[in-house]
Amino acid sequence: MTRIVIQNTSILTLDDKDTFYYPGVIDIRGDKIFSIDSWSQDTVLDHYDGQTTIIDGVDKLVMPGLVDLHFHTSVAKGYGDDLPLWEYLDRIWYPSIRALTPETCRTAALHSYITALKSGTTTVNDMYRHLDSLASAALQTGIRAVISNDIALPEHNLDSVADNVQAFHRNNNLGDGRIRVWLGLEWMPLSDAPLLAEIGRMKKELGIGVHIHLCESRTEIADSIKRFGKRPVEMAYEAGILGPDCVAAHCVHLSDNEIRLLAETGTSVSHNAGSNAKLGNGIAKVEDMLKEGINIGLGVDACECHNSTDMFETMKITSFMQRVTLEDASLGQPSQILRMATSNGAKALGIDAGILAIGKKADLILLDLRKDMMFTPLLKEPVEQRRRMLESHLVFGCNGSAVDTVIVNGKIVVQGRTVLGVDEEQIRKHMDTLFHDLVASMPAVTSERKKNS
């Protein structure tokens, strides 16, 4: 069993009591947090038979790792950025992911997971293709990943329920449980009622979760009403897809009844403010959902839709969008936003992490408080004011480049801003080559909207 001790540091636990240590010490044994306490010069480590790594936490902040609740491995960041959602899907997204091979998908996943880890994300909820490749990349990089397919009707040439089920049997619980497989439904415009029912049945049969896009755009809702006579959340509810084991991404344009259904079923929502804004899809009713007790986490979506895997940027955008929309500076407080990015996401995915507490999974990050003066000024005392300033800086003033060290499942996977176990420069070069070849090989575009009209 390995042991990691981080001492003489600031520790933001994000537990229910807002426990904060300065200076503090955190002891990790195996894959769990063994103890958290105050630290002094007199602190002496007890005897331990095994490998012990001691990290000096001076001018560092330890906090829970970030959970990206809606993530897509990405290949085409910065390409076609002037397009709205449906046109972007038709012209860029679907052609690019159809052209992927298992090998190129693995390269794309390595790149995506590397950038996520380097900005402090310890868990991704990744809906994509070629799940064997995603699992392999997650195993190599050390990230925790819930992976799912892009299930759609056969004519859309994406993935089937059978593809997802086979991937589940091959990959679920790999990496000492770091890799888990859920079912993933692309979205209502590429589905029909029998497909939704099949996903609902398989969810129950396998005892796994579902990752789904719901109510992302007004055109999606119009399409659903035209074809089904019902709104997207209502269709998902009737199919047995909603529940505590379901993550519904976006949920921008919800009716009152849809909010009620999400709340009553215990469905979690991934709020993706940056993607929603960039694609011009609108601003979700976050406050209305919170009032009904819906668990809301945060996601960056794909790099194609946000151009970054940095969850710190997502936190800032989330708070700002709610404040400006409702003209209320009391909304989106840092303490609340930080929990959306950590414990709420962990809860949605059924991961025993997201806060720093004894017995929890050791998924945590260390930030350099000296980095580019992002955390300056910062009081040393009183301790409570130091905590509040740190929370403010985290949400409003810093970005992922402040992340120095990342620990997932009790193992150091990023050290000194370098992802261990991968050649980052080689992956960068492979991604450039991959995308150049991918653009040349994309098939002629056929409008998905025309297929469904």
From TrEMBL:
Domain Amidohydrolase-related: 61-413
One Pfam entry name: Amidohydro_1
InterPro entries tied to this protein: Amidohydro-rel, Metal-dep_hydrolase_composite, Metal_Hydrolase, MTA/SAH_deaminase
GO molecular function annotation: hydrolase activity, acting on carbon-nitrogen (but not peptide) bonds
CDD domains: ATZ_TRZ_like
Keyword terms of this UniProt record: Hydrolase
Protein name: N-ethylammeline chlorohydrolase
Originating species: Mollisia scopiformis (Conifer needle endophyte fungus)
